[in-house]
Design brief:
It is a single chain. With 219 residues, the protein is of the alpha/beta class. The protein has a single domain, classed as Nitrile hydratase alpha /Thiocyanate hydrolase gamma (Nitrile Hydratase, Chain A, Alpha-Beta Complex), CATH 3.90.330.10. The protein is 42% helix and 15% strand. The chain has 11 helices and 7 strands. The strands form 3 sheets. Strands 1-6-4 form a 3-stranded mixed sheet, covered by helices on one side. A two-stranded antiparallel sheet has the order 2-5. The longest helix has 15 residues. The chain is globular. The N terminus is likely disordered.
Length: 219
């Protein structure tokens, strides 16, 4: 689901150069214990094998936000790919060589504009576009972020150092077990002559979750 918050005045988004939220380690939570118990039961019942679990874990751990940055940079550089990405993100990312079928979920890409800022959360657990971003940061899984992102997104964004103008609509997208979201951040001014490889280097993880924007390179 998505939540729109409309206001009548103010400036467009400004990325303040404050540090992002730290990636604190979580304790062994109820849901972690539940996942461990379910996984062990599935292996015991021969529904899945320990080797299959190992392969998936190794694949997840091998991924990093650079995958998502590659997708964003391609969309910024190639209007045709950008359109395909917004229409069918799963197919578009598969065309780039990402093994999307391994995760058996649909990916939807939402685009930031001067009038709309998108933000991703998973209110029930921690569903996350791991196929493109790797493991989620601990704050994304925290109860505080999951509960507050929907109720007071602007306050949460301010804590990340992102102050949005009141004329910018905030849309919060709630991921599910079958659906993942990735934010396509706005391309910063002054990057028109940058190569795709150079663009990849300036795309940060949090901008693809929606808790930050991509700042222009410092000259």
């Amino acid at each position: 689901m998505s939540h729109d918050h409309h206001h009548d005045h103010g400036d467009h988004a400004h990325g303040h150069r404050h540090p992002n939220q730290p990636d604190h380690d979580d304790a062994l939570t109820y849901y972690r214990k539940l996942e461990m118990a379910v996984r062990e039961l599935l292996i015991e019942k021969n529904i899945i094998s320990a080797d299959e679990v190992r392969k998936v874990v190794e694949d997840i751990e091998s991924r990093s936000p650079e995958g998502g940055a590659r997708v964003v940079a391609r969309a910024w550089s190639d209007p045709q790919f950008r359109q395909a990405l917004l229409e069918d993100a799963t197919a578009a990312c598969t065309s780039m060589g990402f093994e999307m079928a391994l995760y058996d979920v649909k990916l939807t890409v939402v685009e930031n504009t001067p009038d709309v800022h998108n933000m991703v959360v998973c209110t029930l657990c921690s569903c996350y576009p791991r196929m493109l971003l790797g493991l989620p940061p601990a704050w994304y899984k925290s109860r505080a972020y999951r509960s507050r992102a929907v109720r007071e997104p602007r306050a949460v964004l301010r804590e990340f150092g992102l102050e949005l103008g009141d004329d910018v609509s905030v849309r919060v997208h709630d991921s599910t077990a079958d659906l993942r979201y990735l934010v396509l951040p706005m391309r910063p001014e002054g990057t028109e002559r940058m190569t795709e490889a150079e663009l990849i280097a300036i795309v940060n993880r949090d901008s693809m979750i929606g808790t930050a924007i991509v700042s222009p390179p410092i000259e």
